[in-house]
What we know:
Elements: E1 4-5, H1 11-22, H2 47-56, H3 58-62, E2 67-73, H4 77-88, E3 94-100, H5 108-118, E4 126-130, H6 135-138, H7 149-152, H8 156-163, H9 167-173, E5 183-184, E6 191-195, H10 196-203, H11 208-215, H12 223-234, H13 244-252, H14 269-272, H15 274-283, H16 295-302, E7 311-314, H17 316-323, E8 340-343, E9 354-358, H18 367-378, H19 386-391, H20 408-412, H21 427-436, H22 446-461, H23 467-482
Parallel strand pairs: 1-3, 2-3, 2-4
Antiparallel strand pairs: 4-9, 5-9, 6-7, 6-8
Amino acid sequence: MKRKILATILSCSMVAALLAGCGGTAAAPAEAPAAAEEAGETADAGEAEAADTADASADASASGGKGVINLWAFTDEVPGMVDKYIEEHPDFGYTVNPTIIATTDGAYQPALDSALQAGGAEQPDMYCAEAAFVLKYTKGDMQDYAMPYKDLGIDVDAKLKEANIAQYSVDIGTNTNGDVDALGYQATGGAFIYRRSIAKDAFGTDDPAEISKIIGGGSGSWDKFWEAAATLKDKGYPIVSGDGDIWHAVENSSDKGWLTDDGKLQIDPKREAFLDYSKDLTDNGWSNITQDWQDAWFADMSGESDKNAFGFFGPAWLINYTIAANCGGEKAGEGTYGDWAICDSPIGFFWGGTWLLANKNMDADKVAAVKDIIEWITLDSSEDGLQYKWANGTLNGEGGTKDSVASGTVMDKSDGSLEFLGGQNMFDYFVPANSYANGKNLTQYDESINQIWRDQVRAYAAGEKDRDAAIADFKQTVSDTLGIDPAE
């Protein structure tokens, strides 16, 4: 397969470092940000697997004689999936030409936008967008380039129902006309991921059902969680590593997004409360005051902090490609391997994901082929589809990494038990978690606004400015950098 790498893939070096921490094998593609998502440096840790798949099947895609399909992505993950599809469908007949540009320094979006606008033989026929900016392509400035899935020839309603795709993912991928333009292949609904040994010490049990009750799992309230934080503090443990560990639950549980209907900046009360949560975590000693994706944060995963954190909020990829990769071991008894479990989060949320789109301006003779690929990746709930193989760790043979996938139907008939979780079946919690996530409070500017907000929250929690100043500085910075004025 001819590959155009137009920017250094951020996660290449990070993947090597992450996998070294636990001997982790990225045996299925999955998303795992390698740097702060808010800084626009999100990358897919599972791309190492996808790259292996791509190399193994390059000859299959290069042999197509029907024409060329141009695929744009920000990691090797989706290109690897496409290679796998071609490998398993030798009569496919098309060459797939991937262009991979990392999200580092915001490089991907401008290049993709230019290629879509330029049109012609080199224009993307298929392209990827991640959670941080997908709304730009489904509901925002670039939505007019996307071809609705129904126009590809997909029976969208029937397939969504058959596959049991989480509503948040559908909402994010639905355009302003009500048609689905994009779907993901992962389920990134979040749970609370905790240390079993700390649970036993602080609460006398590590049973997920009991821990869920203790922290208020599924309650929609933080009250029980803060009570648990006080109990853990008395035992010498912070409940989380840093305020970033609760941010995504706060962000996704808000009733409103950052913008009003007329495009003005607003702060939902639940997001404003993050100021108080961060301050409480800091002042009460309920966190280690770490910043996500930094060394101190990873130390809480390996149990090497002075006071080890109880847990983290996140989806399955955080377990498979971040915590496992930094656990300090490869089997039970080494580092924190096997000392983890998951339970319900107090607040429903999702974190991350990649959505797959088709260009409505592609040549008509490519539509059927693009339809087949997209459907196999995002909606096929059979045992021959990508998602079943991925969920069961068989995408590239037995013994691969199991992951939470977009199809609830697939997870219901799959085995999600992990030795890393002490044998727990993660699907028991991640399937319902996906139904609690909210995909209606996002905007195309979230990546930038979230970064500005979290910077101001950290400054307030550290005592560097008062609450009113933090809010005022947030509004001013958004206005100065994005040209978005606050609502009256």
